[in-house]
Amino acid sequence: MKTQARVVIIGGGVVGASVLYHLARAGWTDTLLIERAELTAGSTWHAAGGIHTVNGDATLSRLQQYTIQLYREIEEESGQSCGLHLTGGIMLAGTPERLDWLKMVRARGRTLGMDLELLSAAEAKRLFPLMDERRFVGALYDPVEGHVDPYGVTHAYAKCAQKRGAAIERHCRVTDLLRRPDGAWDVVTEKGTVVAEHVVNAGGLWAREVGRMVGLELPVLAMEHHYLITEDMPELVGQPEQLHCIDFEGEIYMRQERGGMLMGTYEREGKPWSERVTPWDFGQNLLPDDLDRISASLEVGFEHFPAIATAGLKKVVNGPFTFTPDGNPLVGPVKGLPGFWTACGVMAGFSQGGGVGLALANWMVEGDPGHDVWAMDVARYGDWTTMAYTNAKVRENYSRRFRIRFPNEELPAARPLRTTPVYDRLAAEGARFGAYGGLEVPLWFAPPGAPEERVTFLRSEAHAAVGAECRAVREGVGLIEISSYGKFEVSGAGAERFLAGTMAGRIPAVGRMALAPMLDHRGKLIGDFTLARLAPDSFLVVGTLAAEAYYLRWFEAFLTPDVTVRACAAEWVGFSVAGPASRALLQALVTVDLATEAFPFMSFAEMEVGPVRARVGRVSFTGDLGYEIWCRADDQRALHTALRDAGAPLGLKPVGGRALDALRLEKGFGTWAREFRPVYGPDEAGLGRFVEWRREGFVGREAALAARDAGGGALRLVGFAVEAEDADAIGDEPVWHDGAVVGAVTSGGYGHGVGLSLALGYVPRHLCEAVDGFEIEIMGERRRARRLDGPAFDPAGARMRS
């Protein structure tokens, strides 16, 4: 065995083999894959091997398309068959709500170049004759679905990699990982130690254990998963191979397996496997059958597909697969552990394995994944993802694998986990909470006697209450808890230099604030922040809570001994007061003169607010006159009392996150992971005016300048007023112009303050001045849309500067 390698990959399943192949293809051939047994010996070998392109995240859909397209290529290069059966696939809707969801999937597919076709139940029956069409109301057909041979795919990747010079060591368990003084890793194995510059955790069922070797508790858990294979069925004799089929109501997937059918289920009462420790001696084993546990799903399946009910049972497979709390992979570098990478939690390995390998190889070789991989970035989870949290969320996710997630639906498992000191007070005021980054955040406030909100794609029972909150801000004053922002203290003699290098925006003077985009080396957006300068060597940096670990990982590369960056979101909590009466409210609690001339827009200062020492910024994400007030967590209840009491004579109303989202849409303000993503440049996203182009040395400047000189990128973020009725855009809807799909919505909703259904989205640069001819497809219907010349509310920005 080699004693030194540039990269050691731990795990010889389909994901590890894909990473090995993609690194070798990129030129990193000094790479060693170490497998404790044989290739595929974890969960890969017993996988059903289904492949599909549809995913709730656009990037993952693209990477799944790439994975499927790759199979012919690696077959040819390796000489190893992947057993590719590209039969096409059909998704069946048993309810009107599911059919609406399929319409939305078809619409999203248009933005990705997918050829999806909506069918009636009778048309679906002609494509998949085993179904009882009376049980369904419609279907969606995708020509790019089917299944592969797990053994063949994994060995095709491995053979391609070996032909390019990569190495594989079988029957060799990794027992420890130790960081060397020079920054490299000692990979300790049963056959000796390998010194590696990089280590990739592709451990599959053992990814959790590999993570623990370096002090990580990765949010992954294995679940028992059943599928059945029938005896040969006479209904299949002489027929073309059956399509891959998903029956959402039965929570069943099906495909043909030789002369019979394979049927698997994601039952509601899922069962974890090896909840705390995965045994190293678990090999190519299956788990005992537990057909009683899946009987409810099987009964539905037998009703929906009568021929299955009468077929003999040939084989039952019950094996463990790893899942993450949201069902997406964990991919990328880990903060605080240079050279340590993850490629695990890939439940849909044969749909996603190629894309995961491509993105990780790009990341390691080029320093960038080449795609917007936030949906599978390991940094989307923080230290709050404990083993108990992971267990509860994985169980929930597994049980909902084939269930609709509505845009207004908040899932209950592992909640509440993190709360702020005023959580109980807000609940008493009628707050309905959502979870964001593990933190409970108020979404809207239900008035006394308000009906329960039903999950829906339409405007819900909360619509009127959210509207009242929005009008309170626009007409008087609203109180918004803003603890769900990410916050960092940047201090030290090198603080200004550090921020001038990592941020593309202006560095504010003491007592001032500035909006600052953050770019990667390609000049693309990887963050947007508010910088507040407390002193010459001290800043408060406010951004996105969910991306806290993501930002810390990025900052690590630029730290020097004279600067400290510390995450402090849980320490500094607070409120925003916004609306035309917000100045009067706050002035009653401070001795500082808040008049515009004395404390103008984008000012920042420490002051006493009632009984509390706080940091106050003259800014608001509502686009209205407003202030953000940050205090220590121990002081939040006292601050809340003071603000509530002072605001009572002014009609102060509590305001939740849904209203804040509607208000920012009225101003055309973008937000991270929607409008601001690492596939867009600052000019495309409308942030070019915040870039300090004259300052040299910040990350991404040269690439962004080159794009600016070439026209500022191919796209532009624009706002639309949509002729919607009872449903608004939510994101990922196609934008049509003159009968062709030209872009996609990034976010949308109803602007209560302006009485318009609004959407933000990207269109080609040459269309950004067009006003008419646009349509936005909402739930399968193309709705006329008018491009707005500016924000729907206060386009000149007079209110927020008043």
TrEMBL record:
The keyword Phosphoprotein does not apply. Keywords: Membrane, Oxidoreductase, Transmembrane, Transmembrane helix. Residues 422-694 form the GCVT N-terminal domain. The chain crosses the membrane at residues 7-24. One of its GO terms (cellular component) is cytoplasm. Residues 716-794 form the Aminomethyltransferase C-terminal domain. It comes from the Bacteria. Residues 6-363 form the FAD dependent oxidoreductase domain. One of its GO terms (molecular function) is oxidoreductase activity. Residues 366-419 form the FAD dependent oxidoreductase central domain. Belongs to the GcvT family. This is FAD-dependent oxidoreductase.
